[in-house]
């Protein structure tokens, strides 16, 4: 490692050029394995810092391609304060055609920038970090938004790819157990793959592969949407007569009338009412935001009380600050274990006049 010493650049040790490290997916996975509770606590703290204004989280930027209309790459720049204090960028692509070729839809990197110098000090494989923070957020919401109701015992997964698998892992890793686990997917291969995962997870519960969306929803107390639908495909309000808790992670599955008949919680209002999410469609239809009860942070801090006799829909847009918090956790774990792969001479022009 040949980054400059503090003495070469400044009397203030904070202004040293940091070493630059690359952290692989294998290292990320090892750092996060079995840490569901710690990560859920970290995600909760991050929502609180964000809710208190100790963050910068501008709108995500969507790069789309005329020649590949189903694909996109999203940039999520952010800065988080609190105990984390790091800036950075997640750069995540979604190429749905990958799945038919046998590789995951999403791939990503996360760049962490030093708080004092702005220097990037790490790049991390980030599809795992992204799935982890999404699942931790869903598990946190399942816990907090079901308070005051009988503890749900029947979970239903609507769309069962990688994100559904991570959410199930996070739910079971944070003390949820279910008598019934329902599965619905348009792809029989996905449903079978997820069933295989469930069986070998050892989490228990009777597994049912449902033949219709209606059957899945009607027989679930918690419904997890993790499809890749681009526009609403669930319209029938009567399917929700039993008032489930809905984790609407894929954001575009539910028709506006379902949301209007439900209590709606989001992660961040400005973020979520964009990009033709179902909440955005409701705002476009009604011209107002009255249908929103508040954010998850509002519920956690007691600013918003939830009814127990209505369907609750949590629509999390997915905040860059969560990626940063989980990414910095991974970086610190890898550094503590002495596993950082530092790229020598990555920053090379480190004296202004040579
Ligand atoms: N809100 C967030 O923070 C956040 C974060 C990460 C991912 N996501 C979203 O989660 C979703 C799932 O991601 P993934 O990586 O698991 O995708 P994936 O491609 O691995 O799996 C999606 C599954 O949904 C199924 N599906 C698609 N349309 C369906 C429909 N109408 N009904 C039933 N099943 C359907 C597909 O067959 C597939 O098995 C994506 O929409 C992604 O954008 C959200």
Can you characterise this structure?
34% of the residues lie in helices and 22% in strands. It is of the alpha/beta class and 354 residues long. The strands form two sheets. Strands 1, 2, 3, 4, 5, 6, 7 and 16 form an eight-stranded mixed β-sheet that branches. The protein has an eight-stranded parallel β-sheet with strand order 10-9-8-11-12-15-13-14.
Q: What is the structural class?
A: alpha/beta
Which term fits the overall shape? globular
Query: Termini separation (Å)?
Result: 19 Å
Total beta-strand segments:
16
The biggest beta sheet reads: 8 strands, mixed
What is the helical fraction, as a range of percent? Answer: 25-40%
Task: Catalogue the unreliable spans.
Answer: 1-9
Q: What value does the average pLDDT take? A: 95
What is the element string, with H for helices and E for strands?
A: HEHHEEEEEEHEHEHEHEEHEHHEHEHE
Our estimate of the beta-strand percent is 15-25%
Which hetero ligands occur in this complex? Answer: nicotinamide-adenine-dinucleotide
Radius of gyration: 21 Å
Put simply, the count of helices is 12
Summarize the structure.
This protein is α/β, with parallel strands linked by helices and 354 residues long. It has helices at residues 6-9, 25-32, 36-51, 127-145, 162-173, 188-201, 213-218, 256-260, 269-272, 278-286, 296-300, 320-336, and strands spanning 21-23, 55-56, 61-64, 72-80, 86-94, 106-113, 120-125, 154-158, 180-184, 206-209, 222-225, 245-248, 263-266, 292-295, 312-315, 341-342. The chain has 12 helices and 16 strands.
């Amino acid at each position: 490692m040949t980054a400059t010493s503090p003495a070469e650049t400044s009397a203030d040790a904070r202004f040293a050029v940091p070493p630059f490290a690359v952290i692989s997916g294998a290292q990320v996975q090892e750092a996060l394995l079995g840490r569901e509770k710690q990560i859920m606590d970290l995600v909760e703290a991050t929502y609180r810092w964000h809710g208190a204004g100790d963050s910068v989280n501008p709108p995500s930027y969507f790069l789309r391609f005329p020649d590949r209309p189903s694909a996109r790459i999203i940039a999520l720049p952010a800065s988080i304060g609190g105990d984390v204090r790091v800036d950075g960028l997640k750069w995540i692509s979604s190429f749905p055609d990958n799945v038919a070729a046998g590789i995951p839809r999403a791939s990503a990197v996360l760049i962490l920038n030093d708080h004092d110098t702005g220097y990037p000090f790490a790049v991390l494989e980030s599809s795992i970090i992204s799935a982890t923070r999404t699942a931790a957020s869903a598990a946190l919401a399942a816990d907090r938004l079901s308070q005051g109701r009988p503890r749900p015992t029947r979970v239903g997964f609507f769309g069962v790819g990688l994100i559904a698998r991570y959410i199930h892992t996070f739910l079971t890793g944070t003390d949820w157990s279910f008598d019934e686990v329902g599965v619905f997917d348009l792809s029989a291969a996905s449903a079978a793959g997820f069933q295989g995962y469930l069986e070998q997870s050892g989490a228990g519960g009777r597994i049912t592969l449902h033949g219709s969306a209606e059957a899945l929803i009607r027989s679930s107390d918690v419904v997890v949407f993790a499809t890749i639908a681009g526009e609403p495909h669930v319209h029938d309000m009567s399917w929700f007569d039993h008032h489930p808790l809905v984790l609407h992670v894929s954001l575009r599955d539910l028709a506006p009338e379902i949301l209007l008949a439900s209590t709606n919680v989001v992660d961040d209002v400005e973020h979520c009412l964009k990009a033709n999410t179902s909440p955005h469609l409701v705002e476009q239809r009604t011209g107002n935001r009255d249908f929103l009860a508040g954010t998850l942070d509002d519920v956690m801090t007691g600013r918003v009380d939830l009814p127990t006799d209505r369907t609750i829909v949590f629509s999390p847009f997915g905040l860059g600050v969560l990626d940063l918090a989980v990414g910095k956790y991974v970086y610190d774990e890898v550094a503590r274990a002495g596993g950082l792969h530092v790229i020598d001479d990555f920053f090379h022009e480190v004296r202004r006049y040579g």
